[in-house]
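We modelled the chain as a single entity of 164 amino acids. Its sequence is:
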Amino acid sequence: MTSNIAESMNAVLVYARYLPVTTLLEYAHALLQRWFYERQIYASSRETILTDYGENKMHTIENFSRIHSITPIYHHELEVSNGLKRVRVNSNARTCGCKDGHLWNVNKYTLCSPAYTLQTLINAYAEPVYPLGDDEDWIIPDDFVDRKVEPPKYVPRVGQCQTV
């Protein structure tokens, strides 16, 4: 599935687009109803703080940090290098040459954006998508005007198609 909602909907509705408009809308509604239910169940069954995407990003960063080479300098001083930059770290004074010394004893999950947390996922799918029900049971407002909607006029173009 893509990150663009229009592309995602086009991909899943590729065959339903040939249906009549009302059937297409009912199909899309049923699809959204199923998606919301599945994601609510998924989010409530998770045991971690982050979503799968956030966990995968965290593991990627952790794996990337393993390529850092650590060279001891003195009792509590180390030199950390990633091949491009060398930084001196003092574990006793909790200082770092990269100016990120404030990150000592910080939970790794607090460094993630709230967008990747499970609570955000739960909040996104908190509202249920109710079924439409029978059209006889629908409450129609008094100012509703029933009118027939015609398809747009098709005017064929004259001449040959030109390619640029």
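As a brief sanity check on the tokenised model: The first strand starts at residue 69 and ends at 72. Residues 1-45 form one domain.
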